[in-house]
Write a structure and sequence with these properties.
The complex is a heterotrimer of chains A (151), B (106) and C (263). Chain A has 151 residues and is an alpha+beta fold. In chain A, 19% of the residues lie in helices and 36% in strands. In chain A, a hairpin with a 4-residue loop joins strand 8 and strand 9. Chain A is globular and about 55 Å long. The chains are: A alpha+beta (151), B mainly beta (106), C mainly alpha (263). Chains in contact: A-B, A-C, B-C.
Chain lengths: 151, 106, 263
Amino acid sequence: MIKILSRRGFLAQLLALCAWPFAAARGADADSVEVMVFRVTGGATVQPGRVKLDLPVLADNGNSVSLKVSVDSPMSAASYVKSIHIYAARNPRPNVANFYLGPRAGRAQVSTRVRLGGSQRVLAVAALSDGSFWSATADVVVTLSACYDAT
Amino acid sequence: MTARVQVPKQAKRGEVIEIRIAIQHPMETGFRLDDGGRAITKNVVNKFTCRYNGIEIFRAEMGSGIAANPLLDFFTVADVSGELVFDWIDDEGQTGSERVALTVTG
Amino acid sequence: MTAGLLRHGALALLFALTGASHAQRAAAQPQPLKSGLEFTGAEVRELQHDDFANPGMLWAARGETLWQEAAGREAKSCASCHGDAKTSMQGVATRYPRIDAGSARLINLEGRIRQCRELRQQAELFKYESAELLGLTAYVAQQSRGMPMKTVIDWQNRHNFEAGRAMYYRRMGQMNLSCAQCHQENWGKKLGPETISQGHSVAYPIYRLEWQAMGSLHRRFRSCQSGVRAELLPQGSPEFLDLELYLAWRAGNLPIETPGVRR
C-alpha cells in the first residue's frame, strides 16, 4: 500500500532518485516498487480505492495466474483512466505490465495472466485523466509444484 | 506467431465491446537454464497495440511477468464500422499482426 | 517325480488364483471415476472450459491449419483422405490406443498421425512433442471431446494391457514408487500443496501450466518418472504405449476433454 509521502519520505525518495543513475546501471529491475511508482506519479499521492484487482487467493501454479484489474471511472472524454500499472514486488522484475487506455476504452478493465515468483501482494496503480492516482492490492499464495519435472 | 482474436462480429454504435487476443509465445524470462547450465536468452512480447480505424485504443507494455502464451482482454466503444488492427513485437524484433473487421450498426 | 509335479502344479494353481484375484482387486478402476479437473483449483477449470482463453487451443488451431495443408510427394493433406475432421474424426480418440492392423502392434494417436505422414502422405515425419504433432493430435482428439472412452480389451491387446497394468503397479526410481501408490491408493490426498488426481489420460494432450506449453501424455509419464527419480523412457516407447492402453481402460467411460488444462 502506498502511504501518503511525508516530507521525510519525500526526501528519502529524492535520495533514492539521486541513486537512479547507479540503479540504471544495474538495470531498472533493481529499483524498488516505490521508485517505479514514483516515476509514474512524480511523487503525487496514490490513494487506495476506485481500483479493483482480482487474483485468486491460491494460485494453481505461479507460471500462470489470472489477473483482472478494473477502475471505477465513467471513461468519458472528461474523465477517464490513462493507464494502469501492475507491480509484483517479489518478482525478479517487479513491473509486470503497463496498460494504456483512454476515453475510447469504454470500460477501464483489463484481464491477462501473470507470472508470480512466490506468495506476495500484487499492486495496481491507476493514473486518471484528472491527474489523480488510485491503487489496489491483492494477496496471492503461490506454491511450488509437488514433483520435480526434468522434462 | 499464431494468435487468436475474439471480437463480436457486429455491435451497436456506442456499445462497449470486449476484445480478447491470445498470442502463442513462450515469453522466455531469461532466468531459465538450458541443459548446459546456460541462461536461455530473454525474449518476451514487450509491446502490444490495438488500433481501431487507425486510432490507438489500447496499448500494453509487458515483461517476463506476463505468463507464456499471453492473453489480453480489454474493451472499446463501438464507433463506426471498420477494422481492428493488432500489432505486437518481441525482444528479438519479431512482429505479429492480426486484423479483424468490425461491423457497427445504428 | 509325479508327486513333485503335482505339488508344483497345485502351488502354481494356488498362486495363479490368488495372484489373479489380487490383480483383479488391484486392477479395479478407481471409484468413483473422477476427471483431473476435480483435483485442481477453480482457475484451471475455468481456463479449460473457456474455449478462447484455453492456451491449448492455440495448438489445436495450428492442428486445424495443418489438417488442410498439402504435404509430401503427392501433395495431399489430411483433408484429402479424411475430409472434414469434425465428422470423420468424431469418436476416433475414444478408441485409441489400438492395435495397428498392418504391424499388429499397439499404436496411439500420435503414432497414427506420424504413420499417415510417413507412409501415406510420404512427407517429413513430425517429431514427438513438436508443435505440429501436438497440434494435430490435439485437433483430432478435440473432435471426440465430451464422448466417453470406449477402450476394449480383447485377445489382440490383452498382453499389452497386462504389461501396462504390471508397469502401473511396479515401483520405480530412487523413490521406489509406483503409479498406483499415488493415483490408485492415494488419490484425493495431498502431496505437498497439490491434491493427487486419479491420473487419467482423457484430457491429453494438455496445456500444463508447469510446462508453460502443451505436452503429450508420454511427456507426462516422463515428468512422473523424473519426479520419482526413475530413468525416463522416450515418447512412443512400447512400455509407454502399453501403459497408455492400461490408462485408457482405467478411465472407464470418462469423457475426452482434449485440449485439457492442468497445473
